[in-house]
Design goal:
Elements lengths: L1 H15 L11 E7 L4 E11 L2 E2 L3 E3 L13 E2 L3 E9 L8 E5 L8 E6 L6 E5 L5 E3 L6 H18 L1 H13 L3 H23 L7 H20 L8 H4 L1 H23 L6 H33 L5 H28 L2
Parallel strand pairs: 1-8
Antiparallel strand pairs: 1-2, 2-3, 2-6, 4-7, 5-6, 7-10, 8-9
């Protein structure tokens, strides 16, 4: 029954694979850097939507001489505007809005870097497109923002989520599965930290290709699995997940590099991001387990024969999606 449910779920995933980028997380980014008492440099990054800037715009407080920026220019990944504004009263206690964000699914991360105090990191959402800048920012704002970014990244990053899904199909024991997922998180936390701190530098395209290859490996493990004979990933799931987690951490680093990490709170941001990823993974597994339980209650007539047929088909479905990503990424070198 578990495999039947998995097959139905991933039939939908295969239909949407081409239309969905492997890293759906692509927030906007607004950076306000103080240059002098009343002078600020603004960097405004809009996500790219099919070759055009997303229909959102940053609106600074009215006491600034240029509340809106110039037309953005593409850097190949997003649309960037930079300008310098004069704001007589600074930004503390003022409101900043992201117009049009309520019609989008993306978030916008904002970082304010005053000369006389620690930077502040805040997060706009479609439900909260207007924020008031706090007078005394704390590390808790960074923790909250980056926790949600990590949580959303794992739930919207299809390649990482597909890896966890393949583990869910392959590893039947719940505690071994949770242990494997935790090992995955520990490993990607290591490489994510090393890459963010600049200790480890690996080009993004090969990393993305190897991530897809790791999912192909798990698909093969599912296809070659036989009752009574455990595959490598079933015998030592935490070791396999730890090794592949090191690679996936470099993929997370690429996404986090696009957003930026506050230097003064870099460890808090990394910790919160990784905790968010772990919570997202465990929630995904919990939801799958709950749906399977409901399936068993509502469809008790599903036979073991149907489950046996669904196992290889699920493996082929996962393999097809991951092979598509692998070929796409290798061809993009």
């Amino acid at each position: 029954m578990r495999q039947v449910f998995c097959l139905l779920l991933f039939s939908w995933v295969m239909l949407s694979a081409k239309a969905t980028h492997a890293h759906a997380l692509d927030p906007g980014y607004l950076d306000l850097r103080q240059l002098a008492t009343d002078t600020w440099q603004v960097l405004w990054r809009k996500p790219d939507v099919t070759g055009q800037p997303m229909e959102i715009d940053a609106l600074l407080p009215g006491q600034c001489d240029q509340p809106r920026g110039p037309e953005p220019k593409s850097d190949g990944a997003a649309w960037i505007s930079t300008w310098v504004v004069q704001c007589d009263e600074g930004f503390a206690g003022q409101t900043i809005a992201i117009e049009g964000l309520e019609r989008q699914r993306n978030d916008v991360l904002m970082r304010i870097q005053p000369l006389s105090s620690a930077p502040t990191t805040l997060r706009f959402t479609p439900d909260m497109p207007v924020l008031t800048i706090p007078e005394q920012p704390t590390t808790w704002t960074v923790l909250g923002s980056y926790f949600l970014l990590g949580f959303e990244h794992i739930l919207e990053g299809w390649d990482h989520l597909l890896f966890v899904f393949a583990l869910f199909v392959l590893v039947r024991d719940p505690w071994r599965l949770v242990g494997a997922v935790t090992a995955f998180t520990v490993a990607h936390s290591i490489t994510l930290a090393l890459a963010t701190l600049g200790v480890l530098r690996v080009p993004a395209p090969p990393v993305e290709a190897v991530i897809a290859l790791s999912i192909v490996f798990l698909a093969l493990e599912i296809l070659y699995r036989k009752d009574g004979k455990l595959r490598l990933s079933e015998q030592y799931p935490w070791i396999v997940c730890f090794c592949f987690g090191l690679l996936h951490g470099l993929g997370f680093a690429g996404a986090l590099a696009e957003i930026g990490v506050p230097p003064e709170d870099i460890f808090a941001a990394l910790f919160a991001f990784n905790v968010g990823v772990e919570v997202g993974q465990l929630l995904f597994i919990a939801v799958l387990s709950t749906l399977i339980l409901l399936w068993r209650l509502l469809a008790p007539s599903v036979t073991s024969k149907a489950g046996a047929v669904a196992v290889p088909v699920t493996g082929y479905a996962i393999g097809c999606v991951s092979m598509y990503w692998l070929v796409e990424r290798v061809s993009g070198f």
